[in-house]
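Give me the fold.
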Amino acid sequence: MESFTPYSALTGGALIGLAAVVLMLFQGRIAGISGIVGGLFAPSAGDVAWRVAFLAGMLGGAAALGAVGYAPVLSDRPGHAVIALAGLLVGFGTRLGSGCTSGHGVCGLARLSPRSLVATLAFMASAAAVVFVARHLLGA
């Protein structure tokens, strides 16, 4: 059964927006996670510390929430092969779309980027199609 918790969703969204604004104000960078991670594989001089700090903050925040009892409940956990395939598909889609949901959906839409609007609509349509197929055609 699913449950919607508007206060935690609102708080999480506000914190994501705040992180994106702080990164833009102090580093002049877009908070697209795929771009931040991708920049670690071919870094420019002086371009690693902020990327590592941003990613450490993401992981540290999730770990802190888990430590105080806000860990997600995973009831139907897929196997390692499914997780690996999903990761590869997400990576492929990120390269194909020139960015990820955080870069386009959070930062790009806030900057009124037409490319980000098209990308976000494609993300949402794909997600709706996958949920429809999984729930109504495959019975998951």
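Helices lie at 6-27, 33-38, 49-67, 80-96, 101-110, 114-137.
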